[in-house]
């Protein structure tokens, strides 16, 4: 069995990605371009925060971590390990959709791999999450293809958003200098490099259907740092807003 | 006292616990109950699972199970989330699917293997029965629902999503 430190590090990265992107998705509530999209991003927000909560609960119950709510809302920014991709403000719908597409496929290959994890709580959670994610990727694929084929402007905007986002998305797969080898050796998960390649295999056919060009990944420098606690200027205000109600009275019972 | 209670009585009482989002379906209809343990001298233990991981109604349903069964049978009850079983739409009974349809929500098809996008197409309309329908969005008013449109009767309808 893998050490608690290595497992904890991996769980915090996964959970913080889910929590922060869940919050970003929820910012579309009431603002979506059409009613169905408003509902879609709101539902995906709810799913993501549910996944974050399930992971924080594993930390709490299996690895001696703090209470999930306190852990989510009371940590300083530097203790967060989310990727820069999820911190970025929503911007336009083009960026939000491309981020959703790139992130949710990454999340899918990660949870699929955890079905074979040596860490039992991962096996149990992955079965549940994997089914739910089908609907996220179904939604993302449909919109990427439809918008890219809709008009010249739609195509140009999707391609530009993809070009601008791909390095951030590649940053999801930043390996841990301290724990990566151990997690792979102990068969907790196959490692970031393997997941990165599975992710490319998953997004490529959809991009082809949408006639979008995947930038040459050899020339891309993945945006790392989030996993080590270095964040963009966008994270601190997000955390402040997200924890605002909780921090009014941290002992309140809901 | 609890030792005199049978499994059947507990399951029977559970049929009165309705889902807050779909009030025609009980927790039994939905397949949310995974086990009942009766041990002498201890509260009856009922194990349950949520449909979706982030279902906001879980603690409400949990409390409901406890109060309804305690009241119906006059016994102490503990309700626990069962982490070893995950909910899939095939757990829903055939009778439940019929009730769902009569309530105006299309039931999930029986799943053989994984969910594929194709199974979301041509979902029979719960209002007119036509299969001349299309998926408008895989997300609806609650996490477990999708939105479809019926080209025959011109109505938007919801479906309880298949989940693997």
UniProtKB/TrEMBL annotation, chain A:
InterPro entries: Aromatic_CoA_ox/epox (IPR052703), Ferritin-like (IPR012347), Ferritin-like_SF (IPR009078), PaaA_PaaC (IPR007814), PaaC (IPR011882). One of its GO terms (cellular component) is cytosol. SUPFAM superfamilies: Ferritin-like. It comes from the Bacteria. GO terms for biological process: phenylacetate catabolic process. PANTHER family: 1,2-PHENYLACETYL-COA EPOXIDASE, SUBUNIT C, PHENYLACETIC ACID DEGRADATION PROTEIN PAA. This is Ring-1,2-phenylacetyl-CoA epoxidase subunit PaaC. It comes from Chitinophaga eiseniae.
From TrEMBL, chain B:
Residues 123-161 form the PaaD zinc beta ribbon domain. SUPFAM superfamilies: Fe-S cluster assembly (FSCA) domain-like. Residues 8-79 form the MIP18 family-like domain. Pfam families: FeS_assembly_P (PF01883), Zn_ribbon_PaaD (PF23451). InterPro entries: Fe-S_Maturation_MIP18 (IPR052339), FSCA_dom_sf (IPR034904), MIP18-like (IPR002744), PaaD-like (IPR011883), Zn_ribbon_PaaD (IPR056572). This is Ring-1,2-phenylacetyl-CoA epoxidase subunit PaaD. It comes from Chitinophaga eiseniae. The lineage of its organism: Bacteria, Pseudomonadati, Bacteroidota, Chitinophagia, Chitinophagales.
């Amino acid at each position: 069995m893998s050490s608690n430190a290595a497992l904890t590090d991996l769980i915090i990265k996964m959970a913080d990605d889910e929590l922060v992107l869940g919050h970003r998705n929820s910012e579309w509530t009431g603002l979506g371009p059409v009613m169905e999209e408003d509902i879609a991003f709101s539902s995906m927000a709810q799913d993501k925060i549910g996944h974050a909560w399930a992971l924080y609960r594993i930390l709490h119950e299996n690895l001696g971590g703090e209470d999930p709510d306190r852990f989510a809302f009371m940590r300083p920014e530097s203790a967060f390990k989310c990727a820069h991709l999820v911190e970025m403000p929503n911007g336009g719908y083009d960026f939000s959709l491309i981020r959703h597409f790139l992130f949710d496929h990454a999340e899918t290959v990660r949870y699929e791999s955890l079905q074979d994890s040596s860490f039992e709580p991962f096996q149990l959670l992955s079965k549940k999450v994997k089914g739910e994610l089908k609907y996220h990727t179904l939604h993302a694929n449909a919109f990427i293809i439809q918008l890219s084929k809709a008009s010249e402007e739609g195509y140009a905007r999707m391609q530009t958003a993809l070009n601008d986002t791909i390095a951030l998305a590649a940053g999801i797969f930043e390996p841990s200098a301290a724990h990566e080898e151990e997690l792979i050796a102990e068969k907790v998960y196959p490692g970031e490099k393997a997941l990165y390649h599975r992710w490319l295999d998953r997004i490529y056919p959809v991009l082809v259907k949408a006639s979008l060009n995947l930038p040459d990944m050899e020339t891309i420098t993945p945006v790392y740092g989030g996993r080590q606690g270095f964040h963009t200027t966008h994270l601190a205000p997000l955390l402040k807003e997200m924890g605002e109600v909780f921090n009014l009275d941290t002992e309140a019972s809901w | 006292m609890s030792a005199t209670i049978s499994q059947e009585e507990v399951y029977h009482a559970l049929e009165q616990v309705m889902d807050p989002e779909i009030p025609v379906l009980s927790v039994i209809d939905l397949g949310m109950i995974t086990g009942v343990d009766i041990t002498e001298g201890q509260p009856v233990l009922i194990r349950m699972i949520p449909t979706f991981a982030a279902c906001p109604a879980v603690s409400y349903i949990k409390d409901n199970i406890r109060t309804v069964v305690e009241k119906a049978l006059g016994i102490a009850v503990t309700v626990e989330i069962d982490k070893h079983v995950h909910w899939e739409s095939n757990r829903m009974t055939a009778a439940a699917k019929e009730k769902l349809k009569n309530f105006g929500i299309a039931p999930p098809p029986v799943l053989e293997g994984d969910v594929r996008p194709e199974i979301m197409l041509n979902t029979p309309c719960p209002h007119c029965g036509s299969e001349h329908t299309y998926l408008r969005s895989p997300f609806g008013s609650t996490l477990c629902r999708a939105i479809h449109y019926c080209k025959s009767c011109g109505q938007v309808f919801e479906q309880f999503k298949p989940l693997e």
